[in-house]
Amino acid sequence: MTDKRYKEVIHTDKNNYEYITITNDENKVRIYTLNNGLKVFLAQNFDAPRIQTFIPVRTGSNNDPSDNTGLAHYLEHMMFKGTSKIGTRNWEKEKALLDQISELYEEHKAEQDPEKKKEIYKRIDEVSQEASQYAIANEYDKAISSLGASGTNAHTWFDETVYKNNIPNNELEKWLKIEKERFSEIVLRLFHTELESVYEEFNRAQDNDSRLVNYELMDALFPVHPNGQQTTLGRAEHLKNPSMKAIHKYFEEYYVPNNYAMVLVGDLDFEKTIQLIDQYFGTIPYRELPEKTPVIEKPAVEIVARTVKSPTVARVQIAWRTESYGTKEAMLADIIANILSNRNEAGLMDLNINQTQKMLWAQAYSLGLKQYGYFSIVAVPKENQTLDEGKEMVLEQLELVKKGEFPDWMLPAIVNDFKLQRMKGLETAEGLATNLYDTYIKGRTWEEELNEMDVYEGFTKQDVMDFANEFFKDNYVIIYKEKGVNDKLLRVENPGITPVKINREAQSEFLREILADKTEDIQPEFIDYDKEISKDTVKDKKLNFVRNKYNDIAQVHFIFPMGSDHDRELGISTQILQYLGTDQYSPEDLKKEFFKIGISNDFKTTSDQLLISLSGLEENIEKGIALLQHWMMNVKPDQEIYHQFVGTVMENRDAVKKDKNRIMTALSNYTKLGSYSRFTDVISKEQLETSNVEVFTERMKKLFKFPYQIFFYGKNFDHFKEYIGNYIEASSEAIPEPRQFPEPVTEGNVYFSNYDMVQMEMSRIGKGHLVNTGNFGKINVFNEYFGRGLSSIVFQEIRESKSLAYSAYVSYAPNGELGHPDYVTTYIGTQPDKLQIAVDTLEELMNELPEVPIQFENAKNAALKQIASTRITRTNIFFNTLKLKKLGISYDFRKDIYQQILTLDFDELKNFYQTEIRPLHFNTAIIGKKENLNFDAIGKMGVFKEVTLEEIFGF
């Protein structure tokens, strides 16, 4: 392509900084390169006075040393531990001890005798104890949360480690000061406790069925390349034998300014921002990166089959290795993935397999990485089908692509859908910033990324067919995921770490300076809903309108004030509708018609509401409404399709009862609400099997005769009002009375579900008092201070001090509706031999709210800054009013919460704790392997009962 729509243009700003923009880039991204090689991506988004920040480092698990896998991920964790200035009370004394610990780890790694290794580890534990008296846990997070930051996190993957924060724009310089310090050096303090947390993360991954399959798939696809040979979490033997020296070496080699970028999108001034970034990060010296010999995979020439087992439903996954992201091969693979599956709308597998219910589920996707990538198909057969039958069924769909047996309109419709999804993705600060960092990591230019859609548009149907015939040979990897016992689980002994000191009340000089450096506060802006929402009435239907200021994508929502409480069969009626056509269109043709006009439809049934939504280009919304109503009002009952649907529902019910996460959800619900709740109140197999499909289709046909209101999010309300009357009829049906469900007291029962897994998961749930909006400010600060987040009391004690769990929290959840109770939930996921200590620690913490004045003030100020710099935008403007209405509120209630927090002192929070939380009685949910249960400990929690899956699911 010679005439590109998007081209790089070089500019110089008023302060003589050179930068690149791309012609026709609607987001007006500026790309700077500082003298030390640091790339800086800046773009403006004025949704709120905040800035989404990412610092993407071009390194990940693929650069791990082969004898220290998992190192990049572990380093990412240690980047939150501070430096010689952040997180220390006395650096000189602490450093001497950390150096000792580092040498001991080298001895530990080299030692082969297991008993001698244990002795060295005891010594590591002892010296770590001594070192911890100088350490200040989570001081990085305390510094960053003092700014009012949110979304503080990081992740590591094949070729990337990305550090994330969303900050108020008035705190930009302080954020840069903190991050410059963090990226200047790494200090491996509180190392062995964090190592245990990483191992707990490894254990969680062992219990994650998807990872099990993916590890095997990648190993077979990439027998030589680190994509398949080095997992992000690393090997167990490497995690248990780390090298602090190797981590320091890795940091020195890869955490250099010419190997990472700064991505900032939000309410910022270009010139001031680049000056500040240069002032702080421009001083970090450039360093040459290590020489890397490219790892080249030999062409795949045969089918490689593997089998893995776990308790979940059986499935099969097939994959072909592709060239890297952005190559012609990767792009054509992406197109074919969408010809087969496009968000379950009109792909060949969507229509020929999922829509016709020939299998439980089938999906294709492609993944482009920095080097190589893959195209994959997942097939979930029915109980009476073999995995090979599932494989053959999806390969038949691939043959249709090779023969060109897909409609001519599909290729342009797919490219239009790509454009639509990109438009949606780039409209938010986070979406644009994510795309920018991903482009940087993959070594592409923003110009290439923007021109990508034109490249896709250039492919013809013949190109797709030629590629499919050339590429898809008998050279794939196939993973058979059978239902069975996973005999590869690693069960590891608790190393017996002595809890370290976390010095909650100490502050480094660095943190004191950050807290003393006051910036001018951002003033909160509270929305006037009456002003922002235009209202009208057509016939007897209320219309609500919020203007889309960002792009040409519109949404229309039909909101019915009734849900499953009013009609238990409402939700399943909308599900059956998805498989039925009309007198004019087959079910498959309906999907195609929606896809052709680029309109997606969605049905969501909750306990008290049915929401039917359409989304797409505003110019096609009326066509979407006409098609939706034709479908619903003329739906054609088909008993045979209905019976297939019932069979699919039954198999899906069996599948969820094999899924650990779904079991834990059901168990927690049972623990909270007992045997009769909305969750367990499901239509029985007998009722479904004996029902006539017309029972359900008649509901859909007359649905628009019920009262409802309409919410339109778009640009032209006047035009919408001109045509919407054609699709509205006056209400002639009454909303049924809702059923009431009990909210029983929690009184010390312990419910257990047996599941073969490495970890134990425990959740304790206590029923509180009826919701009181006067407590919302206190709840906000309590969660921040005590129960959730990296600098909370619970996180520090459970994870930082005692390394008892990767994930632990206490959460106070206010009810969303007046007249109903709040709930307090605690959660711990850990090794079985650590569970009792973790429970005891949590009990001790919750017995008396710990008083740490510095931390309380930090939590309070962080909550205030987040409210002050948050703005309600887009569809949230309207949907917030529906939520507030349930609480009897008709204005922006954040104003009251802000005032509550502003005047809150610790005594008030403590009083809230004493009256609202401490007196509660808790029920307990536990999932894990029964042989690992400590029955003496469980006896202290309450009356034990092992529940069946039928009891907790209701089927």
Architecture overview:
With 955 residues, the protein is of the alpha+beta class. Helices cover 43% and strands 18% of the residues. It has 37 helices and 25 strands. The strands form 4 sheets. An 8-stranded mixed beta sheet has the order 1-2-3-4-8-5-7-6, sandwiched between helices. A 6-stranded mixed beta sheet has the order 14-15-19-16-18-17. It has a 6-stranded mixed beta sheet with strand order 22-23-21-24-20-25, with helices on both faces. Helix 12 crosses helix 18 (461-471), helix 14 (387-403) packs across helix 18 and helix 29 (776-787) crosses helix 34 (894-902). The protein is globular, with a radius of gyration of 29 Å. The model has no long low-confidence stretch (mean pLDDT 95).
